[in-house]
Specification:
alpha+beta; 2 helices; 27% strand; transmembrane; membrane; Sortase; transmembrane helix; signal
Amino acid sequence: MLRTFAIGLGVLVALLLAAPSAASAYVPGEVSAGTITGRPAAGAVLTVEFDRAFRAGEPVTLVVSCPGLTDVEIDDVADSGGSTSTPVTVPDGATGTCAVSAFGVSSGAAAVASFTVVDADVPASVGNGDGLAVTGGSTLAAIWFGVGAVVSGAVLFTVARLRRSTAV
């Protein structure tokens, strides 16, 4: 009985640790993912960074695409590590999800990042400071859930063991 319980617990732990997470999402092909910092409201200036996506000193063309608006092209040059950090102004009238695509002129390397435009009238103090609601679970809640599961298992094991010993 104890051996079966230990095997079951081991399988459960292995399944929990093997599950993929959203934070480790796969980006297909040779396209690198970039990061965007700043509050994405219409007219705001964001910083778009692509880390080691291009050749050192390579000219890079960034294209900002927002639904229903004309694409905006921005020229930049990768630093000695092949990275870029480019200020990008969110177009006036932008709504929904906008994409920033970057293309290395000589290498043909591609990188992409996206952002969702927020209402400029919503204060940044809502949610986590960028105007977006905080989503996801709490680490502390997950720990307490795990502790509760172990304690419940121990109680059930003890009850089963006591029932078995009193039945004999």
